[in-house]
Amino acid sequence: MRNLKGKVSELYSTKGTKKKINPNRKSKIYSLATNAKNEAKTTELKDTLLDFFGQLGQRQGDYTRRLLISGGNGATFDMMVQLKQYMQFHKDDFESFALLVPLLELWHLAWTDLSRLYEAHWGEKLSSNDPGTLRNSAAEIGRKEPPKLNKVDYYPYMQLAYLVLDVRMLDCWRCVTNWMYFITGLICE
């Protein structure tokens, strides 16, 4: 199979491609200006989206019929879905926000899941000696308690969660290899 690898790669990049992208193509990136609107309020979110669409050259009565993807955290995503529901009976696709595709950002999902993990498994102050809690593991290696369990700092506490996971897996393997040595008398390397 190794001798066919080069030929297969060549076929994928020449005859096998359906729509070949020009390797010399450069994408133009346009950063959008910000505004002082509060996206937590439906009316201001609508104004914000119309402002952003206007910066993209999409205005009421003068727009290209294409999907406009807009992302945000959980609350912004919910507000965009709600805005689409409120505006759904307008005749025009632009006015009804039919062209808007709300997108829940993945970074926010990961941060929310990490915060939920800490809320569920940090443990109570009275259970600081419980080795099954993150509180106990953090204390053992000298890490501080997060100021807010429902909104932990992403990178340091993600690192702590993975460190605790790795150490606990290694501990499980230590227990398994000790058990195997006890039963069989073999030394596992």
Plain-language structure description:
With 189 residues, the chain is mainly alpha-helical. It has six helices and two strands. Strands 1-2 form a two-stranded parallel ribbon. Strand 1 (68-72), helix 3 and strand 2 (100-104) form a beta-alpha-beta unit. The mean pLDDT is 87.
Q: Can you lay out the helices and strands and say which pair or pack?
A:
Elements: H1 5-13, H2 42-55, E1 68-72, H3 74-87, E2 100-104, H4 106-121, H5 134-140, H6 154-184
Parallel strand pairs: 1-2
Total strand segments = 2
The rough form would be described as flat
- End-to-end distance: 34 Å
Task: List low-confidence stretches.
Answer: none
Strand content: 5-15%
Q: What is the subunit organization of this protein?
A: single chain
Quickly count the helices: 6
Q: Describe the main β-sheet briefly.
A: 2 strands, parallel
Quote the average pLDDT. 87
The topology string of helices and strands comes to HHEHEHHH
* Rg, alpha carbons: 27 Å
Class by helix and strand content? mainly alpha
- Widest beta sheet: strand line-up: 1-2
Determine the fraction of residues in helical runs and give it as a percent range.
40-55%
Name the descriptors.
189 residues, mainly alpha, two-stranded parallel sheet, 6 helices, 48% helix, 5% strand
In summary, what is this structure?
The protein is mostly helical and 189 residues long.
